[in-house]
Amino acid sequence: MNQLSFPIESQSLAIAIGEIASLLFLSAILGWWLAKTIVKTRIRRMRILLEEKKYELTEFRTSMENNNHQPVATNASKTVYPVTSPDHAPDDLKRIDGIGPKIEELFNKEGIHTYEQLSETSVIRMVGILKKAGPRFQIQDPSSWPKQAELAKNQEWEELEQFIGKLASRKG
């Protein structure tokens, strides 16, 4: 087999290595300068944006101080829950398993006075009421309270006791 061999002169090898090294060096310097320029531009833009936001915040605070009597939200709506009708006395919510005097008081403050109102209240709202009241009330599980309230509303006391018994057997 014939092998091709190229005679390389030591002088041309040194020149080639020198050219490659100088190109690498120039590329590194160019990359450093380009990155530095880009970062400076970004920093300048961020400073300008920061100053704009500071100005907007100052304007907002000034307008709030001057217009303290005006509401922040003009189209806000509030969910209104029904209160006890005058012809119906409040029910004893403590008959529901898991509701004691304090929770009954919390629900009464939120406008829940009857079994009907409790049965129509979402579990999410009940959890919210308990959560707002503090950690000692958050251990309660209100998921069965609407069903229990429905049975109590219909005065199905035996079914209610059976349902509470089933709940107790699941827990134990």
Structure commentary:
- This protein has 172 residues and is an all-alpha fold.
- The protein has 2 domains: 10-68; 93-171, no CATH class.
- Helix content is 62%, strand content 0%.
- The chain is built from 6 helices and no strands.
- It has helices at residues 10-66, 101-109, 115-120, 123-133, 145-153, 157-171.
- The termini are far apart.
Summarize the structure.
The chain has 172 residues and is an all-alpha fold. It has 6 helices and no strands. The protein starts with 9 loop residues before the first helix and ends with a helix.
List how many beta strands DSSP finds: 0
Low-confidence stretches: none
Subunit arrangement of the protein: single chain
**Fraction of residues in helix:** 55-70%
* Gap between N and C termini: 90 Å
Helical/strand content category: mainly alpha
Instruction: Specify Rg, calculated over alpha carbons.
Output: 38 Å
Main sheet properties = none
Q: What is the element string, with H for helices and E for strands?
A: HHHHHH
Strand content: under 5%
- Overall mean pLDDT stands at 85
3D shape = elongated
How many individual helices?
A: 6
Number of domains: 2
Transmembrane segments: 12-35
Keywords: Membrane, Transmembrane, Transmembrane helix
Organism: Dyadobacter linearis
Protein name: DUF4332 domain-containing protein
